[in-house]
Request: fold
Amino acid sequence: MTSLTREVHLPADLCEQAQARFGKQFSMVDDLLIFVLKELLRDDAHKMDESEQQMIEERLRGLGYL
Reply:
């Protein structure tokens, strides 16, 4: 199955920081973003309590994604 893709524009410095920090786990920033979005959209993500959701949002803010 082929998925359609969409172009997203991100600041270059943010991508460089993400690559430096997560480059060993993800070969491209695209892969990191796909992973993060899938995790946030998982069905059990809706079952998280508010403190868990807040913690995730704070981490993503710290990384510059929110």
Q: What stands out?
A: DSSP finds three helices and no strands in the chain.
